[in-house]
TrEMBL record:
SUPFAM superfamilies: Ribosomal protein L1
Keywords: Repressor, Ribonucleoprotein, Ribosomal protein, RNA-binding, rRNA-binding, Translation regulation, tRNA-binding
Name the record gives this protein: Large ribosomal subunit protein uL1
Record flagged with keyword Cell wall biogenesis/degradation: no
Organism of origin: Kroppenstedtia pulmonis
Family annotation (PANTHER family): 54S RIBOSOMAL PROTEIN L1, MITOCHONDRIAL (PTHR36427), LARGE RIBOSOMAL SUBUNIT PROTEIN UL1M (PTHR36427:SF3)
GO MF annotations, alphabetized: rRNA binding; structural constituent of ribosome; tRNA binding
Length: 232
C-alpha cells in the first residue's frame, strides 16, 4: 500500500473512521482537511450490492450535475454535414469525420469526451482499442451516440458526467471542487446518488447502496450516512 504524506496523516486525525456523517457535515470536513495547495476535486465513491458478472446487473449511465464539476471539458464530435454545423454551434471543441478519425488513430487525444452520430459509428468503431481503455468510446447508454449532437454537447459543457460500476461494484464520480460551497456540493451529491438509486437493476437482491464516501483528490475518505436518500 502507498505511504501517505504528513499532511494526509494530519487530515486523517480529524476524521472519525467509525462514524457515518450527514452529507453536509461530511462535505465540510472534506473541505477542511483537503491538504493540497491546488483546488482539489471532490469525489464521491459508492459500493453497490450488485453482481457485476451478470449482464442484468450492470450499472452505467450519465447525469448532469446542477452545478457542474468545476472543470470545462473538451468535447470532440464525429459528425458530418448539418450535424457537424449543429455541434460547432453548440460549442464543440473539435468536429469532423474521416480526417478526425485518422487524427485520433495516429494518437492525438487532446479531448475529454467523445460524441458521435450513429452514421459515424462504423468508422469510430475502428478507434475502439484507443478510446475504449480510456473510457472515451461513445455509447448510446450515456447519450454520446446520438443525432441530437447539440443537446449532447450542451449537457457535457453544463456538467454532465458518466458513471460506471467497476468489477467490484464500485462507482467513483466527481461532484465538484473544494472551492465550491457546501450547498452546491451537497446538491450535486444528492442528484448523483438519486440517479444511482433509480438505476438499481431489477435483478439486484439485498442491500443495494452498501456504502458511500466523499473525499478530495489528496485527502482521506469520509463515510456518508445515506439513509435519507435510500430510506434504510
Amino acid at each position: 500500500m502507498a505511504k501517505h504524506g504528513k499532511k494526509y496523516q494530519e487530515s486523517l486525525k480529524k476524521v472519525d473512521r467509525e462514524r457515518a456523517y450527514e452529507v453536509e457535515e461530511a462535505l465540510e470536513l472534506v473541505k477542511e482537511v483537503a491538504p493540497a495547495k491546488f483546488d482539489e476535486t471532490v469525489e464521491a465513491a459508492f459500493r453497490l450490492g450488485i453482481d457485476t458478472k451478470r449482464a442484468d446487473q450492470q450499472v452505467r449511465g450519465a447525469v448532469v450535475l446542477p452545478h457542474g464539476t468545476g472543470k470545462t471539458k473538451k468535447v470532440l464530435v464525429f459528425a458530418k454535414g448539418e450535424k457537424a454545423k449543429e455541434a460547432e454551434a453548440a460549442g464543440a471543441d473539435f468536429v469532423g469525420d474521416e480526417e478526425l478519425v485518422n487524427k485520433v488513430s495516429q494518437g492525438w487525444l487532446d479531448f475529454d469526451v467523445v460524441v458521435a452520430t450513429p452514421d459515424m459509428m462504423g468508422q469510430v468503431g475502428k478507434l475502439g482499442r484507443i478510446l475504449g481503455p480510456r473510457g472515451l468510446m461513445p455509447n448510446p447508454k450515456t447519450g454520446t451516440v446520438t443525432f441530437e449532437v447539440a443537446k449532447a454537447v450542451e449537457e457535457v459543457k453544463a456538467g454532465k458526467i458518466e458513471y460506471r460500476a467497476d468489477k467490484a461494484g464500485n462507482i467513483h464520480a466527481p461532484i465538484g471542487k473544494v472551492s465550491f460551497t457546501t450547498d452546491k456540493l451537497a446538491e450535486n451529491f444528492a442528484v448523483l446518488i438519486d440517479t444511482l438509486i433509480k438505476a438499481k437493476p431489477a435483478a439486484a437482491k439485498g442491500q443495494y447502496m452498501k456504502r458511500a464516501t466523499i473525499s478530495s483528490t489528496m485527502g482521506p475518505g469520509v463515510t456518508v450516512h445515506t439513509s435519507r436518500f435510500t430510506g434504510n
